[in-house]
Amino acid sequence: MHKMTLAQISQGLAKKSFSSLELTQHYLARIHKLDKTFNSFITVTEEKALAQAKKADLQRANNQAGPLTGVPIAHKDLFCTQGVKTSCGSKMLDNFIAPYSATLVLQMEAAGMVMLGKVNMDEFAMGSSNENSFYGPVRNPWDNQRVPGGSSGGSAAVIAARLAPASTGTDTGGSIRQPAALCGITGLKPTYGRVSRYGMVAFASSLDQAGPFAQSAQDCALLLQAMAGFDAKDSTSVNIAVPDYAAQLNQPLTGKTIGIPKEYFEQGLDKAVESRVQAAIEIFKKCGAQIKEVSLPSSPLSIGVYYVVASAECSSNLSRFDGVRYGHRCDNPRDLEDLYKRSRSEGFGDEVKRRIMVGTHVLSTGYYDAYYLKAQKVRKLICEDFKRVFTEVDFLLGPTTPTPAFKIGEKSSDPVSMYLSDIYTIATNLAGLPGMSIPAGFVDGLPVGIQLTGKHFDESTLLNAAHLYQQETDWHQQIPASCKE
Amino acid sequence: MPLQRHEVEKIAHLARLSLAEQEIPFYASNLSNILKLVAEINKAETDHILPLAHPLEDLTQRLREDKVTEVDQRELFQSIAPLTEAGLYLVPKVIE
After folding, report:
1. Which residue range(s) make up the domain with A97?
2. pTM for this prediction
3. CATH number for the domain including B34?
4. ipTM of the shown complex
5. Which of residues 18-77 of B touch A (CB under 8 A)?
């Protein structure tokens, strides 16, 4: 059953070839059997899952089922889930039982989906390898010695290992697309404001966005359909009509122009990865699309801008963790300052402390103009680049990451080299654009992803192009050898 | 220029983090490397550029009506607090 895509599972449930209970039991058994190796789950919500599966089967029997009714899903552990631990991969929230559920979690519940559990991530979504988790690193199902990417490493690994047919993640600088690429699966970062962030623990509020992971673009279309839309509880939510994503999947690409940003083929792109991207370009040509080289001259500055803006926003957002209202509190504080300082220092890991300190520095008196204001101006230039190229092309195509998955420990001692692994994904967040990563082949047995970047609120075109590509290729159907049975 | 010890101590204090003595050189070196990476942005000419205000250019932050929409859930929220008494969050004494 686990080899099926979400769309196939949905059909199977509709035809009553199997029940949601059977399906859920199958995935739970796989998690118990295989996840000791991958460490992708922080919490498995077995009882809740079985109860939701029975409810879904009842809805199905009463003809009240939608396409997602009874389909299992795993949530990144930064979406609040009422009554269930929501740790954010941090010691700070190891004891945090969320008192309410995120809008996204409620939407998935309302669609009838079955929550299998909460999955591992870099602490507070800061990282590109899932090595910054209080619960230990996640291992890449394609090679246990390598990282799955991050920060949504658990979300990507569960799809690759077929421990769940769907998962949720968040993307602040590439945290959906980069792990999707390194794990050989499909991940979508929607437009800023497209999916509600209510109940999603905040990292960098001008960049964060939630989105789906699954095997295919068709699956992601079904998931996005249930996630997208206006939420009065999220002040950044945008009230724009949600199109029928599945209905657009088979539109021909004839007449569409794909931009290839030349800057994405510089900056240390692995030659073997580049050849996979070139092969993908040929497929899109075969599908009828025109190819045009374009330039995003300010994009090489996106990493610098990102580490000012994201750090500044994180230092502000994470100031709420003070040991007073919830989360970790130190023993025997001498005074209030000691309570704050020790609770925070004991609760946060190294990378989170680094980013809080960088953010505090760039916002402090005397440095604000030189760092934060300058970064917001360069960010404007990066947005202008995209605006200009989108008058000439329908979407952009390039590599998702410069290399395939790296080894656990390889970059963990050097934060800057880790930051460079997000070189192609960050600009998309700075400009609030939608982006996708889809599997495009293998290099030395490790998956390679290509990234599609679209116009604001044009997820349809990305899903459409990705779906047509997946009709011509079978990279997204590949399963790691240890996870086939 | 690499950050000096006293600068790292000041930043940590502003961020309400306490660093152990032996951690300071480690963070000083990490933060200096990150600020060096960030300094790349100075290559861009931005004299006549207005800073970005919202990622979706034409939009501004939505305002809502000023009315009470939340119900009182103090007991629920305090059930996960480290230390409370009579409906209040307890912290070490602030005023002698």
Report:
1. 6-252+434-449+459-483
2. 0.97
3. 1.10.20
4. 0.95
5. 18-19, 27, 30-31, 33-44, 46, 49-57, 59, 61-62, 64, 73, 76-77
